[in-house]
Amino acid sequence: MIGARRLLRGAGARRSGARRAAPGLAVPMYVHPVLAPAAWQALTRTDLGSGFVVANAASGPGTAPEQAYVDVLVELQAAGVPLVGYVDSAYGDRCAEEVAVDVVRWRRWFGVTGVFIDRVTSRPDDPSAARRLVDGVRSAGATRVVVNPGVVPDASWCRAADAVITFEGTWTDYLAHVPPGWLREVAPETLCHLVHTLPAEVSLADVRERAALAGAGIVGISRGAMPNPWTGHPGAVAAVPHSRWA
């Protein structure tokens, strides 16, 4: 349980003069391997650090294993690339059993044991809901659980999951994003920001530095825009080696 065991760190450590570590890279790959083979192949040469690649076959694992995804995910795992499979919670509208089925399919069909649970309710009415959802997917075989409320959520998500997306939006919105004080006490490697619609004049290093200053130890970056910025097109973070940021 990566996040639960390393959730909090002392405020003094965050404010110390030690050199900041480069944020890990999150790479949502919402594009078919046949349509963007070079972008997928680039991931085998990219050091993601504490980050991950999000695989998404059909808003989840699909209803049957697709060979193109089987092949590319096997190759990425052989290269040591950390993977999480996309699972949609539909803001709680999908029942726990449906979510668990997706988790099992990712594991059995593709060998992917990490999960990326999208569209979780940021502030559930029941404070135990976050723990129940995460415990449920762990029982289904998940070894790493990343959840995406897309905004700063109730702290229960940070206590339950291994990583939490506390920001997802445009670069313009990111410039105005100010994390609340309590997030400064959460371990950076458990916090992730997803930043898209990056202007040409802003470098990837600029985004990663801003993420580090905001307390996020993982960041996803795309120059693409909505409705789907995460398509692996040129300029996405997939082709940028981790070691180039300092």
Protein structure class: alpha/beta
Rg value: 17 Å
| Biggest sheet strand line-up | 1-2-3-4-5-6-7-8
Order of helices and strands: HHEHEHEHEHEHEHEHE
Helical residue percent band:
25-40%
Termini separation comes to 29 Å
Whole-number average pLDDT? 88
The total count of helices amounts to 9
**Molecular shape:** globular
Strand content: 15-25%
Number of strands: 8
Low-confidence stretches: 1-18, 233-246
Give a quick account of the main beta sheet: strands, pairing sense, barrel closure: 8 strands, parallel, barrel
Summarize the topology.
Layout: H1 2-5, H2 11-15, E1 24-29, H3 37-42, E2 52-55, H4 67-78, E3 83-88, H5 96-110, E4 114-118, H6 129-139, E5 144-148, H7 155-160, E6 163-170, H8 171-175, E7 191-196, H9 204-213, E8 218-221
Parallel strand pairs: 1-2, 1-8, 2-3, 3-4, 4-5, 5-6, 6-7, 7-8
Helix pairs in contact: 5-6
